[in-house]
Design goal:
By secondary structure, the chain is mostly helical. The chain has a single domain (2-379), classed as Sodium/glucose cotransporter (Up-down Bundle), CATH 1.20.1730. Helices cover 75% and strands 0% of the residues. It has 19 helices and no strands. The protein has helices at residues 2-25, 29-34, 41-51, 55-68, 71-98, 103-111, 117-147, 151-199, 203-208, 223-233, 241-249, 253-270, 272-281, 294-302, 305-343, 349-371, 377-401, 407-423, 433-451. The longest helix is centred in the middle third of the chain and has 49 residues, at 151-199. The termini are far apart. Belongs to the sodium:solute symporter (SSF) (TC 2.A.21) family. It is found in: Membrane. Its main location: membrane.
Length: 476
């Protein structure tokens, strides 16, 4: 216990110290939320690795590997990073060219007025809040295993630490610590994977003693289930604002592209390790154990305390910076797309910086409340990805490629799809919810746009080719 306590005090002390340093350097809203569009290659690469290695990777994906095997990697992790690479390769340069803050900014720039409010609400409340809650659950699990704290105490302490770090340091502190912690995360996952596999006799014995259903890239339910599961997860990563923020924060288009590719290739490779750990754990862990406890149990059982402490610090590093990325994402949406649009369009930098910090507190406290109601990390995360993906992917693609898309088409698609997603579980229909949602969203975006006209507030240009701020509203 004392080893763990010493590690945690040193780690969190360093984190708060860095945040305090940036508190005195941050002077504007742009500094706090987007690092003034000036971040270099290695910092962007590191923050992509750290942000992608939160509770889902360390806890959720080890648990998923434990329960379904290596098919979990194919239908969740692999597809997530394939879509992330598509986002970076196809859209990093044109998005960085727009010089925006949030995903919702793109909707406002293209359609004008309050078009960004609904995407902002989705990003802030249906993604940022539950995913931040997952990080708090992960932190409380670590504190429970290492220090014996109950869940409530662990989550309250985690919330306090996250608030202190993110209020003080904003995105600049998050990006810097992410870059350093990415090394710790990589080492931690590699060490734990090697130790776990060796514990069960090595790769050859692991494969020999594991049934094919847990080694197959296709789930036991068949190819259709694997593809439908992937559909509920993958497309969201085209509209994941955490990746967008890294694109916007890059110092130029070239950095956004190169760092984005490098970071996501790294996480695509290392994300196989949690699933390998989970499959290996089936050889010596009680198969009735809650899947979200498998990671902590394996680490605590197989490693001596000084080494296990490093692994747990790596996990806390991922959880801490993941949480700060998500609360900053939600705060950016509320500040930029709601406060500035609805309440105070003439807000100066001082007001925006203050509201940013206040909304960080709001999102974090909402995340704490949500954490008490989540029972399964993978299920909660998958649901958040599916909802945001269904509502935003086709409107985003239309903005980028199709000048004919109209504000009415996009808003109708999002509102109707949102209603259908929430009532669908009660309809008793035999079709997959994500598949129905994506088909409906596509049909509404295209159909309604074809029968409606552009609003005067729109800029009917394809954002893949044009910088929208260079044109006047209604310039046909």
């Amino acid at each position: 216990m004392y080893w763990y306590l010493a590690y945690f005090i040193i780690y969190f002390g360093a984190m708060i110290g860095i945040a305090w340093y940036y508190f005195y350097k941050i002077k504007t809203y742009e500094d706090y939320m987007i690092s003034s569009w000036g971040t270099g290659f290695w910092k962007i690469t590191g923050t992509i690795v750290s942000t992608n290695a939160g509770a889902a990777v360390f806890i959720g994906w080890v648990g998923l590997g434990f329960t379904v095997g290596l098919s979990g990697y194919v239908k969740f992790a692999l597809v997530a990073y394939i879509f992330s690479l598509i986002l970076v390769i196809v859209f990093a340069k044109p998005l960085r060219r727009q010089k925006l803050f949030t995903l919702a900014d793109l909707f406002t720039a293209r359609f004008g007025g309050r078009a960004g409010i609904l995407p902002s609400i989705l990003s802030a409340f249906i993604y940022s809040v539950p995913t931040l809650a997952l990080q708090l659950i992960g932190m409380s699990t670590v504190f429970n295993i290492t220090l014996g704290w109950d869940q409530s105490t662990g989550m309250i302490v985690g919330t306090t630490l996250i608030l202190a770090f993110s209020i003080l340091g904003g995105l600049p502190a998050t990006i810097l610590t992410d870059a350093v912690q990415s090394v710790l995360i990589l080492v931690g996952l590699i060490v734990l994977a090697i130790v776990t596999v060796m514990h069960v006799g090595g790769i050859s014995d692991l494969f020999a003693n594991t049934s094919w259903e847990f080694l197959s890239p296709i789930s036991p339910e068949g190819m259709s289930e694997t593809l439908l599961y992937a559909l509920s997860v993958g497309p969201f990563y085209l509209v994941w604002q955490s990746t967008w923020q890294r694109i916007f924060a890059a110092k130029d288009e070239k950095t956004a592209l190169r760092a984005g590719i490098t970071g996501h290739v790294i996480v695509m490779v290392i994300s196989f390790l949690p699933f390998l750990i989970g499959v290996s754990a089936r050889q010596f862990v009680d198969l009735t154990m809650n899947q979200d406890l498998v990671f902590a149990f394996v680490t605590n059982e197989l490693l001596p305390t000084p080494v296990a402490g490093i692994i747990f610090v790596a996990l806390l590093a991922a959880l801490m910076t993941g949480a700060t990325s998500f609360n900053l994402q939600g705060a950016s949406n509320l500040t930029r797309d709601m406060y500035q649009v609805l309440i105070n369009p003439k807000a100066d930098n001082k007001n925006l910086l203050l509201v940013s910090r206040l909304t960080v507190i709001l999102i974090t406290l909402l995340g704490l409340g949500a954490a008490f109601f989540i029972t399964n990390i993978n299920d909660a995360y998958r649901w958040a990805l599916m909802v945001n993906g269904v509502l935003l992917v086709f409107p985003f693609l239309a903005i980028m490629f199709w000048p004919r898309v109209t504000k009415k088409g996009v808003l109708t698609s999002m509102l109707v799809s949102l209603a259908v997603i929430f009532i669908y579980p009660y309809l008793g229909l035999p079709f997959d919810q994500a598949l129905v949602g994506y088909v409906l969203s596509f049909l509404l975006v295209v159909g309604v746009s074809l029968v409606t006209k552009h609003d005067k507030s729109e800029i009917p240009k394809a954002a893949i080719r044009y910088r929208l701020s260079d044109y006047k509203k209604g310039d046909l």
